[in-house]
Amino acid sequence: MKDLASLRRRAIAHMREAIAMLDEAREHRAANHLQAAIDAAERVSPMKPGDTLPDDSIDTPESTSQLAADPALVRAIGGALAMFATLMARQGGAPVDEVARLLGIYAAATNERSDDEGLLIACWSAILRDVAEAQRGET
Questions:
Q1: Residues annotated as region Disordered (predicted)?
Q2: With CB atoms 3.0 to 4.6 Å apart as the test, which of 9, 27, 38, 116 could cross-link to 22 if both were Cys?
């Protein structure tokens, strides 16, 4: 019998990679729908102050301890990454959406060995995608 939790984690990682590609192709509506599918698969409602980040194996009996990260700290680090990515783009480096896409791919790869690390990196990638989207709206 297949390990359903592992299969679900792999599917979510692939969806995250697909979101990065859709963002690069400027298919934002499709990327939003895929993000909704990820949220549904992860059974995660929007975060509120004081919430902890969910663990991918939350519904499995062999679940490890849930990642206890401070959402404000995760957002602060993501914001700092966004600032540096923006500065690099202004100096002729990779655009913010490219950094977000690469970070999303790295998150999916990292998730294969560590759910917690992959989730944190995916959060930062999502923050950078949001910043890139806002920057496109400003021009």
A1: 40-66
A2: 27
Distance of CA 100 to the CA centre of its chain: 9
- Closest Cα partner for 78 from 128, 39, 42, 7? 128
Pair 124, 101: CB distance under 8 Å: no
Q: How many CB atoms lie within 10 A of CB 121?
A: 23
For residue 39, which amino acid is it?
Answer: D
As given in the structure block, the two tokens for residue 44 are: 């995660």
Cα-Cα-Cα-Cα dihedral sign, residues 105, 106, 109, 115: negative
Question: With a threshold of 0.70, does the pTM exceed it?
Answer: no
> Cα–Cα distance between 87 and 93 in angstroms, integer?
8
